[in-house]
Amino acid sequence: MAGLYFDQFEVGQSFDHEIRRTVTDMDNMMFSSLTYNPAAIHIDHDYCSRTEFGRPLMNSIFTLGLVIGLSVQDTTLGTTIANLGMTDTTFPKPVFAGDTIRSRTTVLEKRESKSRPNQGIILFEHLGLNQRDEIVCRTLRSALMMKEPAA
Length: 151
Fold this sequence. Notes:
Blueprint: E1 14-16, E2 21-22, H1 25-34, H2 40-43, H3 45-49, H4 60-69, H5 72-75, E3 80-90, E4 100-112, E5 119-129, E6 135-146
Antiparallel strand pairs: 1-4, 2-4, 3-6, 4-5, 5-6
């Protein structure tokens, strides 16, 4: 399914995205390696066995990217110009290998672009939830979106 144009979004509109993903230890190791993050809390099982968590935490930036990525097919696939920013990002619960993450998106604000007449700005709230319906990630994302082309 293609993303929606600016004109097709309504404030208060909510999406429970269909695609879910179970995260793996390999995801964590690969992402931490690719981003040069050597934090033991992500990559060292022995170290983590002695922490309050008892096992590695998924890299929070991986979690953030996944939560937004899971939203793309229903919201912004092919219709976004650019991400303008992400704010108020929190990770209220940890994510571990074996957790299954899903995403919920709500449109919080919508406004016309002042400098680009064929585009507008949408403020999305993205929530990441695990298999126990616990919120594991929350972020506000501003996206510059295409308006529907004139017929």
